[in-house]
Every structure is written in C-alpha cells, then in structure tokens.
Design goal:
30% of the residues lie in helices and 24% in strands. By secondary structure, it is an alpha+beta fold. The chain has a 9-stranded mixed β-sheet with strand order 4-3-2-1-5-9-8-7-6, with helices on both faces. The protein has a two-stranded antiparallel ribbon with strand order 10-11. It has a two-stranded antiparallel sheet with strand order 12-13. The longest helix is centred in the last third of the chain and has 23 residues. It is globular and about 55 Å long. The N and C termini lie far apart (49 Å). The C terminus is likely disordered.
Length: 220
C-alpha cells in the first residue's frame, strides 16, 4: 500500500460508508489485504465510531494474528465472505454495503441485476458503455457466515463480476486495492439507484431507446 496504514484506511472508509448510508445500524463492513495480512472491522459495532485498536488482523487463511484490546469484540461476520473474494479473485480490498438501493435492486431482479448503456458502467473494470453489466444475486440466510458457499459459487460462475448482491440484504464489492474497491462500490451503487429510480418513473431500461410503461392508462 505504498507506506499507507491499512488499519487507518479501514477506519476512515467505514466512517465514510456510514455517512453514505452503507453501514448504518452496525451493518456493513470493510477489509483490506496488505502484505499477507487482512485488516477487518469487528462485528456488530457502530462503524462510524471505530478506532484502529478495534480491528482484527488475520492471516489469509483467516487465523487471528492480532485481536482488539476489547475482549468482547469478535471478528466480522462477513469474514468468511471477504476471504472468498481474496482467495478467488486476488482482491486487495472488499466492501460490504447495506445500501438501500443495493437491497432494492435485488427486489426488482431475478438471478442477476442487469443494466446497459449507462455511463457509470465504465467505472467497473473491464466494462464499457455498451456492455451488459450483470451482478449475480444469491439468496439471503439467517446468518451471514452461511452465505460464504453461495457467494463463492457466484464468484466462480460469473468471472466478469466485481460484486455479488445478497437478496433483501446488500452487496459485496471488491477491487485490486482499496481505491478500486471504493470506485467499484460507488459505481455499482449509482447503477443500482439509477435502475430502481427508472422503474419508479415507469421507464423500461433495455438499452438504446427507452420507453415508458403505461400505468392506469396514462404515461408516466
């Protein structure tokens, strides 16, 4: 990370994601991999109030190398899912968001969220304006750790994706480093909101010309 402090960066980004509505109510999470170590926020805490002393430092296999001073804390429930993205995609950072539009995108979609011909698609690595962006959606479970298998399968079956949505829950997004992961997360959230809002306006988004649905005999 070119001399940066990965723990300080996790704390900074968790506060930012709280401000964006991605990590409210102790939800969401963030982790960074640096020099064979994974820095991860603890579970069930207010992400905007984290300090570096609250973080866990893990090995790439998930072994705890350094624990927080507060013995009541426990590693993030997202940890097994973070590890999947690190192992299967060589990610340098993974973000978990409970953003409202990420959740709503799963309500209006089937097995994948899809969109095309929206400028922010270009912010996703290896994608262009005319590409059809597809984000796989896995079904939610009662406990976050139980999502690891289905998320891993979705990553393997969708080699172009840099995110996996969880039905009625949120999204996991990764990148080669924290900068790319943040960029991807911002672009995906923009696209989720754009498509949800177009649906609210009655716009059927299929690329090219858009058309309006007729609702109650009147075009909206």
């Amino acid at each position: 990370m070119n001399g940066e402090n990965p723990g300080a960066r996790v704390v900074e980004l968790c506060r930012l994601f709280y401000d964006l509505g991605w990590a409210s109510g102790t939800g969401g999470g963030m982790s960074i991999r640096d020099k064979g170590k994974i820095y991860v926020a603890p579970s069930g805490v207010q992400k905007e109030r984290l300090s570096e002393s609250d973080l866990y430092v893990l090995s790439e296999s998930g072994e705890v190398l350094e624990a927080p001073r507060d013995a009541s804390l426990r590693p993030s429930a997202c940890t097994p899912l973070f590890l999947k993205a690190y192992a299967l995609r060589g990610a340098g950072a993974v973000i978990h968001s409970h953003g409202m539009y990420a959740m709503l995108a799963t309500v209006i979609s089937g097995r994948h969220f899809e969109c095309t011909e929206l400028e922010m698609i270009k912010g996703i690595a290896d994608h262009g304006y005319f590409d059809r962006l597809a984000v796989p959606i896995v079904e939610n479970t009662a406990h976050e750790a139980d999502l690891a298998e289905s998320l891993g399968r979705a990553i393997e079956e969708n080699p172009r994706t840099h995110a996996v949505l969880v039905r009625r829950h949120g999204v996991y997004v990764w990148g080669k480093d924290w900068v790319q992961a943040k960029t991807h997360a911002e672009c995906y959230h923009y696209l989720f909101e754009a498509v949800v809002r177009m649906r609210e306006l009655g716009v059927v988004h299929e690329g090219g010309e858009q058309r309006l649905e007729v609702v109650g005999g009147t075009k909206r």
